[in-house]
From TrEMBL:
Protein name in UniProt: GTPase Era, mitochondrial
Gene that this polypeptide is encoded by: Eral1
Sequence ranges of Low complexity compositional bias: 180-194
Listed InterPro entries: G_ERA_dom, GTP-bd, GTPase_Era-like, KH_dom-like_a/b, KH_dom_type_2, P-loop_NTPase, Small_GTP-bd
Domain of life: Eukaryota
């Protein structure tokens, strides 16, 4: 009722409100929901190691002082062929595109730990960017903590940007190490001038005021790298329009590049500060007390489905249908939830229950804990398993 009231009534407005709508797109399992949860500061979007955990677009709201960020968490961009093979809903195909139509800024998330996909943007992502070239875009390299050789990140940047960032050409230059002591004390790069010193940590900075300079930071991780990136003012595409993406592997119109590890929250605050600074004057769309547009029931379904995806193998969890049988408040203010999980085969039921009921008990326990953290109250969750009639 409180959630409905906040969504229904006119939002409170500060004296000089600012707002930014952010679409987060990328391939399945790139970490979009994990990043969204970190930006929100609470877990409201489902996360698992399996692809297609997010089945439809959902939004979250970050309200900080006079600024409101509206985060549009979308399903991973996939092709019609893959959607048909995995029996995915039509929303999996249309929702990312719908989010782009309403966005002021788009974050393109890339999983740099995936050796098979990290060297190029997917055709679906490139198609999306090319369709909306007027929307400013930012490249976010996620899971950088899993890349041991940091110079690989430099190579990925040049490939994923086609060699251009913010209209300036990037070049990789080798650093000659004379001896071990000099390499340990002298960082290979020098930070470029920028109006925004707060975001220098792990992003490639704008260098509008610099004729030539490095755009890498002096971070400890990058001191072992033998290469660095520099910008040249000439040669970059100043404007981006629709492009022939047939032979493209990257996008040459990114304004910034960030590197982070969303799962552990590393450098997420740096990205958040940047997003807050990109907000433009405009009225808030939601009350400051609103965290997400999902109903409590939707949050509950998503969290339970996240655990089912985590504990069931292969395609089995995608066939589970969730039916909520009870949702009410207990005598002490606790939330009582009973949900029936319907599966297509008896063998699937046995897998979901597990030997001695261990699997279903673990799912109920972990989901219940996440629900308590989301709703900030005691939750008693009971799960039942049946074969579909």
């Amino acid at each position: 009722e409180e959630q409905d009231r906040l969504l229904r009534y006119r939002p409170d407005q500060p004296q000089n409100p600012k707002v930014l709508r952010i679409a987060i797109i990328g391939a399945p399992n790139a970490g979009k929901s994990t990043l969204s949860n970190q930006l929100l500061g609470r877990k409201v979007f489902p996360v698992s190691q399996k692809v297609h955990t997010t089945r439809c677009k959902a939004w979250g709201v970050v309200t900080y002082e006079d600024t409101q960020l509206i985060i549009l968490d979308t399903p991973g961009l996939t092709s019609p062929f893959k959607a048909k093979r995995h029996k995915l809903e039509e929303a999996m195909l249309t929702d990312p595109w719908d989010s782009m139509k309403h966005a002021d800024l788009v974050l393109v998330l890339v999983d740099v730990s995936d050796h098979w996909t990290r060297n190029s943007l997917s055709k679906e992502v490139l198609k999306c960017l090319s369709q909306f070239p007027q929307i400013p875009s930012v490249l976010v390299l996620n899971k950088v903590d899993l890349v041991k050789k940091k110079f690989i990140l430099l190579q990925l940047v040049t490939e994923l940007t086609e060699g251009f960032v913010n209209g300036k050409k990037l070049e990789v230059r080798s650093e000659v190490k004379h001896n071990s002591s000099s390499s340990a004390t002298s960082p290979p790069t020098q930070a470029s001038p920028s109006e925004n010193r707060a975001t220098e940590s792990h992003c490639l900075q704008k260098a509008d005021q610099a004729q030539e300079g490095s755009i890498w930071d002096n971070s400890r991780d990058m001191r072992d790298s033998e290469s660095s990136l520099v910008t040249e003012a000439a040669g970059g595409p100043k404007r981006c329009g629709p492009r022939d993406i047939k032979h493209m592997r990257g996008w040459p119109c990114f304004q910034e590049i960030f590197m982070l590890a969303a799962l552990h929250g590393e450098e997420v605050d740096t990205l958040k500060r940047y997003l807050l600074m990109q907000a433009k004057p405009g009225p808030w769309e939601f009350h400051s007390g609103v965290l997400t547009g999902q109903s409590p029931q939707e949050i509950c379904d998503n969290i339970i489905r996240e655990k089912i995806l985590e504990y069931l193998p292969l395609e089995v969890p995608y066939g589970v249908v969730q039916v909520t049988e009870m949702w009410e408040e207990g005598p002490s203010g606790e939330l009582l939830i009973v949900q029936n999980l319907l599966v297509p085969r008896k063998s699937h039921m046995m897998m979901l229950i597990g030997r001695g009921g261990k699997v279903i008990s673990r799912i109920a326990q972990e989901a219940g804990q996440d629900l308590m953290n989301a709703f900030l109250c005691d939750v008693r969750l009971k799960l039942k398993v049946e074969v579909k009639s």
